[in-house]
Amino acid sequence: MSNKINAAIIGPGNIGTDLLYKALRSEHINPVLMIGVDAASEGLKRADKLGIKTCSKGVEGALELVKELNIGIAFDATSAYAHKDNAEKLNTLGVTMVDLTPAAIGPFCVPPVNLSKLEPGKLDNVNMVTCGGQATIPMVAAVSDVQPVSYAEIVATVSSRSVGPGTRQNIDEFTRTTARAVESVGGAQQGKAIIIINPAEPPLIMRDTIHCLCDSQPDEQAITESVLKMVEKVQAYVPGYRLKNGPVFDGKKVSIYLEVEGRGDFLPHYAGNLDIMTAAGLHTAELIAAHKLA
Fold this sequence. Notes:
39% of the residues lie in helices and 25% in strands. The model has no long low-confidence stretch (mean pLDDT 93). Strands 3-2-1-4-5-6 form a six-stranded parallel beta sheet, sandwiched between helices. A five-stranded mixed beta sheet has the order 8-7-9-11-10. It has helices at residues 14-23, 42-49, 58-68, 80-91, 111-114, 131-144, 165-169, 171-184, 220-235, 272-293; strands at residues 5-10, 29-35, 53-55, 73-76, 96-99, 125-127, 149-159, 191-198, 206-214, 241-250, 253-260. Helix 6 packs antiparallel against helix 9 and helix 6 packs across helix 10 (272-293). It is of the alpha/beta class. It contains ten helices and eleven strands. The chain folds into two domains: 5-129 and 275-293, NAD(P)-binding Rossmann-like Domain (Rossmann fold, 3-Layer(aba) Sandwich); 131-270, Dihydrodipicolinate Reductase, domain 2 (2-Layer Sandwich).
């Protein structure tokens, strides 16, 4: 029996291409198909040179290939609008969707926090929240694992060069989705999310600040141990995820400061915000595949 599951990537843009490079190193995911809608796409041409089958007729035009190639997992790096239709078509064929769009049809997933609770082997659709959520929610969860958090606020600062037009047009959606996941996945009773797009040149890597307000005086030793343990869990699939300062304790407030440097697979090192999304998507797919293959 193969120890890999064949996978498709929908969307040959920067995120889809970075994901492809990462997936080529995977122990459990075998990328065999890239799907787009433009035959002249540089991403499709690049995939073809890497020996990956390509389809420029969208998911509808790729359904026979999906069956022929025995695709078990598909990453969707298109848009929330397109994802609903893509998921309906591919779920019917038994394909599990790893959704990197804001569609949120499936449950939110931040792998080291809640994937194991979602019964990975039975999932047909899982949503990767946002880049800010992937970076900061593990820290909120690390604090709320120790004691109740009444309020959590995260600030994600990203380079302007790493923010595409889709994100710029949906800033409100980004903040609402992230705040909702800070509560439902991170465990805070109330969450708030802020994104800052930094135009500095040369571009700065992603930086994140997390403030948690505990119900009672923080257990400093237990929270510090929990935070350090969670940092290690994220570093297992995002090597550039680093604790810069903290946890800092001020009364009932706990503050944590991070930076995320990209691995540089396809995107520049400063684009840690995009790198953590593709890395989290692949890590999630690998864990789903491991359950399916067990």
